[in-house]
Specification:
Elements (H helix, E strand, L loop, with lengths): L1 E5 L3 H10 L9 E5 L2 H11 L3 E4 L8 H11 L4 E6 L4 H9 L2 E6 L4 H49 L5 H10 L8 E7 L6 H7 L3 H18 L3 E6 L4 E7 L5 H16 L5 E3 L3 E2 L4 H13 L10 E3 L17 H10 L2 H16 L6 H22 L5 H10 L17 H39 L7 H8 L3 H12 L3 H16 L7 H7 L5 H12 L3 H7 L5
Helix pairs in contact: 2-3, 5-6, 8-9, 11-12, 11-15, 12-15
Keywords: DNA-binding, Phosphoprotein, Transcription, Transcription regulation
Pfam families: GGDEF_2 (PF17853), HTH_18 (PF12833), Response_reg (PF00072)
GO molecular function: DNA-binding transcription factor activity; sequence-specific DNA binding
């Protein structure tokens, strides 16, 4: 803690330094001033918690100092030490928050007791201040969540949330009897790339920043409230009063966003609807205003719920290009993929208008097709691999790539889509290469362990693959099933061993992995067309 001694007599200040047990009271720094004016300068600079002052001083006295403290630093604790037994001075001390009035000559016990009381009082109040600050911080954290919940509920079920209406009146200045309002949606889909890159994956911070900017304008004018709509994870603005001036208000908000974040955003705006019952309809209108605007032209940033005549985009289906793109991905050729995607964008570029609604439809088609491809390309892939492929393939929230003019950038979109498909193709080739290597590893294992008792279950356990997967892939790669492949290896080895006349048939049978001689003979005859003995006689080497 810090203390300040204020007295025009130096020997009094020196006496106080010696008589007070500063360390016991937790005071580590002590400053001095000769009068009230000098004391105010020290207080402003050093922020002492305890001020011990005389009352009768030149330039500016103790009463004036106490009066200044009450206005400018009310948390500081003051103790008066005076040589005047004057009731008016005592009254002023009490009036301006002094904790004690001690008469000179100074009694050490009395001044130490007064200081202990002042320190305890300051510590108690500081604890309360800290708790109050913590409560305010917590409330500031909770308030946005509370309002998001309240206003989302009001939008979803207007008739069931009268508390939200009362809270809007109390905290946001909603005039009693408000009969209409407009809903605006701040588009996160068509945000400029530089703003998206600035916040990266921290969308919560982006939402927090944008909502704060919107509410700064709305709350200041008592015109509305911005909040995060839980049902769709969008930023909505509920605006009341002077419906014709709402577009201009949104324009001011957009300029505020530009100043703070160096970027503008699109707003979809509904017409005026009854409050609160018309909120759901207003939301749908604002959403349609965004989804149905022509992304090929920049007609402004505020899009009202009036669909321009003739904006009926020609239907173009992504699914019409599915087979060409799928085949290109399977080919593993980046050039073929680029060519297939180019054919799709040739069709897109022939359109006179493209809306967000149309892009969302294409995205749904593309996601559906991509899902089918992944199931086809990786039928036996572990769930971790499938999740990785889906993530790398670009499924997720729609973000429309815009150019510097704020219109749809087909070049950027084409590049992103091509990259997505090329990455999927690379993942497929990598998987196929690894699968092929595994199957050949299995074949090599059979060739060196043919003499052991081997089952399909043993192979599956050794190579951490399912039996069904091994059977299918082995047949695809070698044109025969695993058991017949192993049987052919054993019979070939048996043929060589039977060239040795000193080995009995039973010994040969065991040496190639058959514990049952009769079964071995049966398999041998099925493969070669003759029994082991017949084969040996026909192929006896000439000595």
């Amino acid at each position: 803690m810090i203390a300040l001694l204020v007295d025009d007599e130096k020997h009094v200040r020196s006496a106080l330094r010696m008589l007070i047990k500063w360390e016991e009271h937790g005071i580590s720094q002590i400053f001095e001033a000769e009068n009230g004016e000098e004391a105010i300068e020290v207080i402003r600079r050093e922020k002492p918690q305890i001020i011990i002052t005389d009352m009768m001083m030149p330039v500016k006295g103790g009463v004036e100092l106490l009066q200044w403290l009450q206005t400018n630093d009310p948390s500081a604790k003051s103790i008066v030490i005076s040589g005047h037994d004057d009731f008016s001075l005592v009254r002023h001390t009490i009036q301006y928050g002094g904790t004690d009035y001690i008469l000179k000559p100074i009694d050490p016990d009395q001044v130490n007791e007064a200081l202990a009381k002042a320190v305890a009082s300051w510590n108690k109040e500081e604890h309360e201040r800290s708790r109050s600050v913590e409560r305010n911080i917590e409330m500031n954290r909770i308030k946005p969540v509370y309002w998001d919940r309240q206003l989302s509920g009001l939008l979803d079920e207007p008739a069931q949330n009268p508390v939200a209406v009362r809270d809007l009146q109390a905290d946001w200045g909603l005039p009693a009897g408000t009969g209409s309002c407009r809903i605006a949606i701040l588009s996160m889909v068509t945000m400029e790339r530089k703003l998206k890159n600035k916040f990266g994956r921290n969308t919560d911070l982006l939402f927090f920043s944008l909502i704060n900017i919107c509410n700064e304008f709305l709350h200041r004018r008592s015109r509305g409230a911005a909040f995060r709509y839980w049902s769709s994870n969008e930023i909505l603005l509920l605006v009341w009063g002077e419906p014709d001036k709402v577009p201009a208000l949104l324009g001011d908000i957009n300029e505020g966003i530009l100043t703070a974040l160096h970027s503008r955003l699109d707003f979809g705006l509904s017409r005026a609807h009854a409050f609160p019952d018309g909120l759901p309809a207003a939301y749908r209108e604002a959403r349609d205003a965004l989804r149905q605007r022509n992304l090929l032209s920049r007609g402004g940033w505020i899009h009202e719920a009036v669909r321009p005549e003739g904006l009926q985009p020609r239907r173009l289906r992504f699914s019409d290009f599915e087979e060409a793109i799928r085949t290109a991905i399977r080919s593993g050729s980046a050039e073929e993929i680029s060519s297939a995607v180019q054919a799709w964008f040739d069709g897109v570029r022939s359109l006179s208008a493209i809306t967000l609604e149309q892009i969302e439809q294409w995205r749904r088609e593309a996601d559906t097709m991509r899902g089918r491809w992944i199931e086809d390309f990786f039928p036996d892939g572990p769930e971790e691999l499938l999740a990785e492929v889906r993530s790398e393939s670009g499924s997720g929230q729609t973000i429309v790539p815009l150019n510097e003019q704020g219109t749809l950038s087909l070049a950027d979109w084409q590049q992103e889509l091509t990259h997505s498909f090329v990455q999927l193709s690379k993942k497929l080739l990598k998987r196929q290469h690894r699968e092929k290597n595994v199957i050949y590893d299995i074949a090599k294992y059979l060739q060196t362990h043919y003499h052991e008792e081997i089952s399909l279950q043993d192979i599956a356990g050794r190579f951490f693959l399912s039996r069904e997967y091994i059977s299918r892939k082995f047949k695809q790669e070698f044109g025969t099933n695993l058991s017949d492949y192993l049987g052919a290896i054993r019979i070939d080895k048996a043929k060589l061993l039977m060239m040795n006349p000193n080995l009995r048939i039973s010994q040969v049978s065991e040496m190639v992995g058959y514990s049952d001689e009769k079964y071995f003979s049966k398999v041998f005859k099925k493969v070669t067309g003759c029994s082991p003995n017949e084969y040996r006689k026909a192929n006896q080497p000439i000595m």
